[in-house]
Every structure is written in C-alpha cells, then in structure tokens.
Amino acid sequence: MKILTLSLGVSLSFSRFLSQEKALTKIEEIEKVKLNSVEFGLLNCAIGQAGFSGIIPFPTEKQAQSILKLFRNNNYYFSVHAPYRISATTEEESKLKYSKSNLSATLKVTDWLGGHHVTFHAGSFKKKHNNKHVDKVLKSWEKWRQDKGYNAILAPEVGGKYNSFADFFTLVEITGGIDNCLMTWDISHDFARGGKIIDEEGILTRLEKLDEAFDLNPSNRLPMHFSGMVVGKTGEKHHTLLGKGNGVPWELVLSVLKEQNFLSKVNLICESKVPKGEKMSGNAISDALKARRFLESGQIVKKYKGKPGNLHYYFT
Ligand SMILES: [Zn+2]
C-alpha cells in the first residue's frame, strides 16, 4: 500500500496575535492523530495601510521559530495560505503594489517556517476574464520572487466562484508555463464552479494535465484542498463538512489518485468546517481522518452518487 507516501493535514491559523497556548493545543491535537502536513493560515494578516483599521500584523521571525519548536517531530510538510488581500487580477497599479507587499511578507514568513509553497487566491473579475493580464502579473511576481531569493513556491488556487480566477484548466495552463510555479487544486472549489470532477474521466484528464505541466514528486507535491461545500448559482457559497452541502466527490477523487499512484505527488489539506450558526459534529481534523481511513480501507469508489444541487453548468 502507498499509504506511507501520504501527506495529509489541516490548516493552523497564524498571526502576530496567536498565543503560544492556543498554538500548542492545536499542534497537540494534530500530533495525537499523526497527521503529517500543516498549512499555516495567514488569511487575515496584512501590511498596514493608511485608512484601514483592524489590521492583523504578520507573525515575526521569532514567533515563527517558537511555533516550530512546538512540533515534536520534524517530518511535517509545511505550507502557508496567504492573506485574502492579494490580487493578481486587478489592473490598478496601487492594488498590485499592495498585493506584492503582502505577498512579500507572506513569502518571508513561509521561508522562516520552511514551508514548501504559498497558496493564494488570485482575485476575481468584475467584467471579462483577462487571463493575459494575470499571466503577465504572475510571471513578473515569479521573477521578482527569484530575484529576492525567496524559496517558497507560488501556488495560486482554483477559485470557488464562477467569476474568481481561475478554473482548473486556465490555472494549469498559466502556472504550468511559468518555471518553478505551482497551483493549488481545491477540489471543493473546482466542484463548486462547475468543474467536471464528478466522473473518473474528468479527474483523469486533470491528472494528465498536471503531469504534463509540473514535475511532481514526494518533495514537490501539488497542493490540494478538500472539504464539503455549499454551492449556489455563482459557485462557492461556503465550506462545510465532508458529506454535507452539495456533495463534493472526495471519495471518487481519492480513489482515482490512489489508482493512478498520485498520492505521493500531492499534499492534501482538509479545509472542512462547520458553517457559522449550524450544529454539526466534526471538524477539519475528523474529516482528514475520514479521508485517511477511506484510503487505508482499500475501498475504491468508481461512481459519484451525490446530487450536485443547483449547478447546471458542468463543462470540463
Ligand atoms: Zn482552499
């Protein structure tokens, strides 16, 4: 069984304000169940900007070093999720500049943590998708990253909303064309925006594209996110637990990854959560364990049995 090659974990929210006690509690939970991957979430961190209040500062180098000391073993695969304030789709110079400052702060923290990559949402489009513009921006950011000597790899994420950048195929084409760049494949987002991952063929096509675009191996894994998802007419509404919402085909995707010997090429982060105001038992850790149990059970799911809900635009 290829289970030893599994890199599976959850995210851990990190900022200047995270207390050592809180971090330790979460890390102990993760260690107890032997997950081996952690994505530090800097989601609400930001560089101070005039006119904005309530800014949460990025962690310091000292804080990064102390949080690392809380992990008892050193076989973790670490990564970072950048703040939401980054946009590669905007055409406004000032916004692009502000995005780059936040990206720079994120890359610094990621290198202190020894993280492999930075996952980030690349932005949305108000009017027409302008892929050429994003391609240009990402290329310039990648060049700048290398000039600055940051080690962490850029990995923009498949967006969950129909107007967000970008769908799986656009992203694999753009990031695959940039040296040393990766992408983050969030299967719940892919599903929410109408990606055809509800049958084996759609998933296989994606794996083929990934193999063509990137050199994936156990030390350069494709970042993947999974969770339950509530879907509306424009795509993602919000994350939920596996098996809830509109039925993300996680068992089918994991089955194909396993059959194609792809598990050693991906880093799986569970982003499940109980939606605000709802009562459900479970969380990202219990859902990550659900995925691990499924993989270890030897079970293979061939057909999607869920109902994708009110989505009527499955395309590729
Ligand atoms: Zn995600």
What do you see in this structure?
The chain is α/β, with parallel strands linked by helices and 316 residues long. The chain has a single domain, classed as Divalent-metal-dependent TIM barrel enzymes (TIM Barrel, Alpha-Beta Barrel), CATH 3.20.20. The chain is built from 9 helices and 10 strands. The strands form 2 sheets. The protein has an 8-stranded parallel β-sheet with strand order 5-4-3-2-1-10-7-6. The chain has a two-stranded antiparallel sheet with strand order 8-9. β4, α4 (131-148) and β5 (153-156) form a beta-alpha-beta unit. α5 packs parallel to α7 and α7 (200-213) packs across α8 (250-259). It is globular, with a radius of gyration of 19 Å. The two termini are 31 Å apart. Bound molecules: zinc ion. Zinc ion (ZN) binds at residues 157, 186, 225, 271.
- State the oligomer: single chain
CATH superfamily: Divalent-metal-dependent TIM barrel enzymes
Backbone structural class: alpha/beta
And the CATH topology?
A: TIM Barrel
- Work out the count of structural domains: 1
CATH top-level class: Alpha Beta
Report the total helices. Answer: 9
Low-confidence stretches: none
Average pLDDT metric: 93
Q: Write the element-wise H/E pattern from the N-terminal end onward.
A: EHEHEHEHEHEHHEEEHEH
What's the helical proportion of residues? 25-40%
Let me know the number of strands. 10
The order of strands across the largest sheet is 5-4-3-2-1-10-7-6
The largest sheet, given as strand count, sense and whether it forms a barrel, is: 8 strands, parallel
Beta-strand fraction estimate: 5-15%
CATH architecture: Alpha-Beta Barrel
